[in-house]
Each structure stands twice: as structure tokens, then as C-alpha cells.
Amino acid sequence: MPEIELDGVDRAILHELQEDARRTTAEEMGEAAGVAASTVRNRIENLEKSGVIQGYHPHIDYEAANYQLHLFIICRAPPAERAELAEEALEIVGTVTVREMMTGSNNLHIEAIAEDSAAVDTVAEKIDDLGLEIVSTEVVKDEKVQPFNHFGPAPSTGEDGE
């Protein structure tokens, strides 16, 4: 993938996409970034080609979708096998995301959903079958997400502290 150096226009576009990629138009993003809509479309295409934008994903309320249990499972994997085990864990039905951690012994974090406690047991058994050590399983009550603010306007450097 070609490497890209982000400028203020790219950062403004990324911020707007994080706010609401589905409903924000190129015209609105252009207005926020101070460029034409055609420039926004070209920049988005370049950001996609370079791998900066890797997809557009909905933020899902799993409980509203009848998956009553949203899990965060912290595991230990041998560092040499971590990447391969992460790929295998992603194949487990119910797994939403797998994060490989660079530091610490709790180096694989699995986010999964389940309809009930029996489904939680099934996910846990499949994780155990991979040879991962489950350190803890937490049930998520709620998740809040916000855009990375460094893609938006820079903080003011005014003396009034704003």
C-alpha cells in the first residue's frame, strides 16, 4: 500500500467520517475542511487506497439486536503464537474483535457477543480449545465511542484557555 502523509484536510475528513460516515456528505465534509466536495471524494479514495481507511463499520447495540451478553475476554497467548491464535479466535462464532496487545502477559483481548449463558460457555470452550488461557471474562454494560479528536480542529492556543 502506498504510504501517505496526512495534512489538515485529510484529518478533517477523517474526523467527519468518524462522526457519522453514513450521513455526512462530501459537501458537508468539504465545508468543514475548507475544500470542494470533489477534493473530499479524491482524498477519501486516496485514504482508502493507502490503507488509512480500512472500512466503514456500524456501531451496533447488541442488546437491541437480541444478543443480551456483550463480553470482553482477556487471554494469555505465547507471544510467538499470538498472531496465529488471534486469527483463529476471530473465526469463533460470536467473536466481534480480537486485539493483539504488544505489552503485558494478558496479550489477547477478545470481544464477543452471546444470546445467553450457554452461548458464553460455548465461546469460552472454543477459546480454551485454541490453547488460550482465559484470564477474565467481563460483561460489558455499555460502550461509548467518540472520534479521535486529533483528526478534528486543533485546540486553540489563545491565552483565554479555549
Structural description of this entry:
With 162 residues, the chain is α+β, with helices and mostly antiparallel strands. The protein has five helices and four strands, in the order αααβαββαβ. It has helices at 8-20, 26-33, 37-49, 82-90, 117-129; strands at 69-76, 95-100, 108-114, 133-139. A four-stranded antiparallel β-sheet has the order 2-3-1-4, covered by helices on one side. A hairpin with a 7-residue loop joins strand 2 and strand 3 (108-114). It is elongated, with a radius of gyration of 20 Å. The relative contact order is 0.16.
Structure described in brief:
The protein is of the alpha+beta class. The chain has 5 helices and 4 strands.
Question: How does the overall form come out from the CA principal axes?
Answer: elongated
| CA-atom Rg in angstroms | 20 Å
The helix-and-strand class reads alpha+beta
Give helix and strand order, one letter per element, not per position. HHHEHEEHE
Distance between the termini: 39 Å
Low-pLDDT windows of residues: none
Major β-sheet profile: 4 strands, antiparallel
Q: What order do the strands of the largest sheet run in, or round the barrel if closed?
A: 2-3-1-4
Specify the helix fraction band: 25-40%
